[in-house]
Amino acid sequence: MDFLNALVLLGNFVLIPAISYGSQLALGALGITLIYGILRFSHFAHGDVMAFGTMAVILVTWWLQGMGVSIDPLPTALLALPVGIAVAAGLLLGTDRTIYRFYRKVKAPPIVVVMASLGVMFVVNGLVRFIIGPDDQNFADGARFLFTVRDFKEATGLDEGLGLRWSQLITIVVTLAVMSGLFWFLNRTRTGKSMRAFSDNEDLALLSGINPERVVAVTWLIVAVLVTVAGTLYGLDKSFKPFTYFQLLLPMFAAAILGGMGNPLGAVAGAYIIALSEVGVTYAFRKFFQYLLPESMEPSGLMQLLSTDYKFAVSFVLLVFVLLFRPTGLFKGQSI
Amino acid sequence: MKKLLLTTALVGFAAGAAQADDVPLGIILGFTGPLESITPAMAQAAEMAIAEVNESGNFSLGTVTSVRGDDGCIDSGMAVATAERLVTSDRVLGIVGADCSGVTGAILQNVARPNGVVMVSPSATSPALSTAEDDGLFFRTAPSDARQGQVVSDILVDRGVESIAISYTNNDYGAGLADSIQAAFTAAGGTVTMVASHEDGKADYSAEVGALAAAGGDVLVVAGYVDQGGRGIIRSALDLGAFDTFELVDGMIGDSLLEAMGDEIQGSYGQLPGADNPGTETFQGLAEAAGFDGTSAFAPESYDAAALIMLAMAAAGSTASADYKDHVMDVANAPGEPIYPGELGRALEIIAAGGDVDYVGASAVELIGPGESAGNYRELEIRGDAFETVRFR
Prior knowledge:
- The structure holds two protein chains of two kinds.
- Chain A is 73% helix and 1% strand.
- Chain A is an all-alpha fold.
- Chain A has a single domain, classed as ABC transporter involved in vitamin B12 uptake, BtuC.
- Chain A has a two-stranded antiparallel sheet with strand order 1-2.
- In chain A, α1 crosses α11.
- Chain A is globular.
- In chain B, α2 packs across α14 and α3 runs parallel beside α4.
- Helices cover 43% and strands 21% of the residues of chain B.
- Chain B is built from 14 helices and 16 strands.
- Chain B is elongated.
- Chain B has two domains: 220 residues, Rossmann fold; 143 residues, Rossmann fold (3-Layer(aba) Sandwich), CATH 3.40.50.
């Protein structure tokens, strides 16, 4: 019984929050790693493009809600996703056409393109604030809980409870679906294979007749899907605020680098590692050990490794260690 | 042109000649800076008290005039220069101000104490000012944040709460408040399981709440802002089933909280500054007639600050700070006839006749300890879709 209580406690406060946060990070990090693998630069505008796509989803959601459309208990925002993806794709292809393509043509060094993406970041940043404002926006509807902590306690009779929100379940399911779709696409389809070939060796890919502009356009389209889905899930699960999306850039990059830049599987693993350590390292394990250990060995302190103030430092410490000891990341990516 | 110069000179001379009977008061507030939106009403409230005293004709020490000065709210250098100018060249005999805690301390130490001028701040709330060296010259009509800590502790103890966890917003306001709540509640015999900060503007607070939940406690005290991290903490605590009841500080009281999760936090409680005082309404009427908003933050306290200085002068029969500084507490507190806004003339009459007054004013002034407002709070509880007043403390 105590063992079950300890497990439920850990699940409620560490595992479920970390897995849903990790899923959102994973989608973002996948986009970063794809762009790095194929276009060969670090896309700094990633967080803000995410905010832009989510903003489009929110606006359409509000319109749908105004029309009385509802798919209760699922959030209406899921219906609005395709429009958001289309808007994000338009933005990404537009910036590629007007900005990045020029730098590709003149074969500019990667750092120049990175700086250009920094510029794009500021512009998109401003656009989002201009259109929807800098404040918190609420667009979640439908049922909030699949089951609450109290329901769980009553149903199982345990001392500890476990709550699961719809947004968390949707996050995990959608992430799994999008990720398996992406891996199928990359490994099984002709276009996916040509993307991987282009990423492995650009010159060889060109020689074998792969159209680079097509590969680039497909990459941006996939990125648009990934960021909009990630942003919408994050917004549904937590809240939408342009500034927090900008801040997501750092953990997303940390995840991509941790797993190995350019390696999609690595990005996913990196995201879950980052999320679990952010939540796990700052969690106070006292109650957990109180359930597991005999009374004489019960800890009196909080058993907290780091104060929650240092939550964001965790991903950077991991990042620094990886860069120092394994610059290619945990799963053999490209060195940066 | 010549005539103009002559007139100006004459007016200047006349003003100089009249100085003997003038009682200039300095009004030093942050007319620029982060509080610039509320300072105009504060200054107008102080000037309204001055006009009221002059019109009554019962102030025998001269005509009270006012000189405004800008302290920039967060610019100590500018604040000290302004105060220096007002004291040495305008020769003000008392200061209504300053507004923000930092500049108030700077003016007190660098200008008011060296020159021996009384200061009454309407809005500085830092607990540090309670223990600052002031030679008996410093008073405030605003309560120290330490007072709210005491009120929180009283409310918790009265409701039979034995252990609490505190989550505070990571700035001076939150940290000061958390400290004073912890000190007061521990002194009252309660247990504080954990005091942890949260950053505003984050989307996710599950890690913070996880730590607080592990520490445990009957009630979570949230010392933050309603539209910021404070709300995120409550949202997360409810989602994770970590806490059911919350104690909300003044920054957390807002309708947006009820809109966001009203039915989930029924029975949670908190407090806001406020008193069961008929003077507040009278003051708002007077302010409206004078053309400014009497509900603006710290406007009542500003009116009271100016009124206290003038009543203390009348009670001392002198405009010298060294004489009247000892009378400020007397006129502010019982015993005596209670004085509400608009009754300053009557108060002066009573004082002239040798009577005693108990100035209540617009903000229910009651000075305690080192000359700061006792601080009245309204205890609120969430019932239905509103914050309902339970009682006054």
